[in-house]
Amino acid sequence: MHVCNKISSIQPVLLDINDHMGKFKVQLFSEQEFQGSSQILEKDLSQIVEFPAKSSKVLSGSWIAYDEENFSGNQYVLEEGAYPDLSAMGCLPQTCLKSLQVVNIELSEPVISLFEKENFKGKKFEFITEIVNLQFLGYNPHIASVEVHGGIWIIYEHHNYKGRQILLTPKKISTWKETSGYHKIGSLRPLLQRQVYFRLRNKETGKFMAADGNMDDLSLLRIQAVEDNKSGEQIWVYQDGFIKCRGAE
């Protein structure tokens, strides 16, 4: 195998999400068990006006519900599925949801580091998968700083995914308590992202990245930039940290 250690040229590309396959949708109900009046959302809503959501169905994508307007206050992460009451959504019975936000895709593998001291100092714990009970596994639950290297993570105050929660995308948090409001992490898990279909378009030429050749033999597969032809070879699939050509499915 020839190993290339020289880059001859580089061009910028843009992510082009397929409109039909990248939609988000949630249905809110004014009563428990999906009763009463309903409201369907397909994009962020900064103010839920005069609609006391008591149950919900996440039909597509993942969402964050907030108990304050403008995407502030306590967070409640809602993945695809049915939530017959506020408790199922992780809320207290008296919670009133005030805003709702789409969780955008993150094209990176889940990796997170927790530190015992602020500014990423002290003992470091790194995880790539879910942890149901941090303390039970022998880790110090009193965390002072956090760095998300990749993926989308949900951090819970208590073990077994209970208590206050916060959703994190790749970022550095030098003082965890100041950001989250609590100093103890009981459990955490990466958010499972559904399949996302997208295309990669060259910013300068407008051409799309496409796979050409035998999909069963990677040594015979070529990647090239071509004009838009709406073919499956121009559509790429992402899920759980892996990208592949749709034509290979």
Automatic annotation (TrEMBL):
Residues 61-104, 110-150, 151-192 form the Beta/gamma crystallin 'Greek key' domain. The keyword Repeat applies. It comes from the Eukaryota. Pfam families: Crystall. Keywords: Repeat. Belongs to the beta/gamma-crystallin family. This is Beta/gamma crystallin 'Greek key' domain-containing protein.
